[in-house]
Fold this protein.
Amino acid sequence: MATFVPPNVRRVLSPHLPLGDHREAPFYGRDILSVSQFSRNDLEYIFGVAKEMRAMVERVGTFDLLKGKILANLFYEPSTRTSSSFLSAMERLGGSVIPINEVTYSSVAKGESLPDTIRTLECYADVIVLRHPEVGSSALAAKYARKPIINAGDGTGEHPTQALLDLFTILEELGRVDGLTVTMLGDLKYGRTVHSLSRLLSLFVVRLNYVSPEILRMPPALVEELAGKGVSQKEFISLEPVLAETDVLYVTRVQKERFENLEDYEKVKGVFVITPETLEKAKDEMVVMHPLPRVGEISMEVDEDPRAAYFRQMECGLYVRMALLAMVLGKA
Ligand code: CP
């Protein structure tokens, strides 16, 4: 039996219906390197496509929008969510994936440079998703690539697709962004997710609270950048003064792998732990988010709380990444 697909979903998703030349679609052939490249209109467009992707996944699971297209998933750092959601996104869209999750077994181990690895993979793939430990690595890759590069995390720099899925989650959970108080907690120095999310939120009227140990404060250059855009920002060393006013509590892991001195890590690990008792003082209508993985900063007892949005957030990543792949490949 044929599955019914609503006309609005068909119009956007079927390459066989008259949408004009897909290559004229916004984002066709573009890199996704930083959230700074997006406007509010872009976000509306991306999230519209992401919602349609969700509708299609719920209705048919997998469909052939990107049949014949190949993604190279190149990860120089560990990943579970970003790597597998991009893989799942491509396969749900009917495309295929070259997975390079362990560069130790690729020619990188023989000393191949990033530009050469990129120039190699683009011979075989239509789009490259790259995670790399160095800030600016995706921009470097894009300089040499003829195919679109999607930044899946460049060291402590940015994680733009995470910020997009974070914002999509906030909209899905709370229905708006303007007027919200967003409290970011944990490792704000090394956390690329909060660097990207705070930049993306600067497109909206929000209040940002930064709660961290002194040595893990938000980078002053970023605070200055956002201040220049008129964003209201305050810094704290404890959650207590801001919890009651918080609409989005965005918790992050202290990133052991980024510390030069492990003694410093030992001093700050476990300094914040969100428990059911913590949330007793929070609003009824708020959300707790986390890019994951967590290593103890949100206790598992919190998972049952309806305000715990981090698993729903993870699922949003699939639809946003499906949207991005379809867009850069000219099919949305
Ligand atoms: N949120 C995130 O980037 O998770 P992974 O490191 O598992 O990809």
Summary: The radius of gyration is 20 Å.
